[in-house]
Design goal:
elongated
Length: about 130
């Protein structure tokens, strides 16, 4: 199957969003508030692993058509983070205003990361489905 440039570009975008996004929102790993919000996921070690996922997306950007099931793995990973966000939002969304007041950058992250992961998850699912081999 033929590669499609826009798909490669979105893989790269996903990687950049993970890597640069974590560096910005973690304030270069100094954002204690972010670490406290979901310590099991957003500890500095967890944030580094999110960046590693970003590197994995970038590494597949030109080979997704040869390994579509890897995009399927990315789909699962993204939907796990969506589930974590839904669980957090169900319990703590009412505190979002306080989080924004303490640090708008962290508040913004908490408000949007679930939607971001959902959109990239749908994209990875599309790639897996579109290029899977029977």
């Amino acid at each position: 199957m033929k590669k499609e440039k826009w798909i490669s570009n979105i893989f790269i975008l996903g990687g950049v969003v993970n890597i640069v996004g974590i560096l910005v929102f973690s304030k270069l790993f100094t954002n204690v508030l972010l670490n406290q919000i979901e310590p099991g996921v957003f500890s500095n070690e967890g944030l580094v692993l999110i960046m590693v996922w970003g590197l994995a997306y970038i590494s597949l950007a030109n080979y997704y058509h040869q390994a579509p099931w890897v995009a399927g793995v990315f789909t699962v990973e993204k939907f796990v983070y969506v589930g974590i966000w839904v669980r957090w939002a169900t319990k703590y969304f009412s505190t979002l205003e306080e989080i924004f007041a303490e640090d708008w950058l962290t508040g913004f992250f908490c408000a949007v990361y679930g939607a971001n992961d959902f959109l990239f998850g749908v994209f990875f699912l599309y790639v897996c489905w579109r290029f899977r081999k029977p």
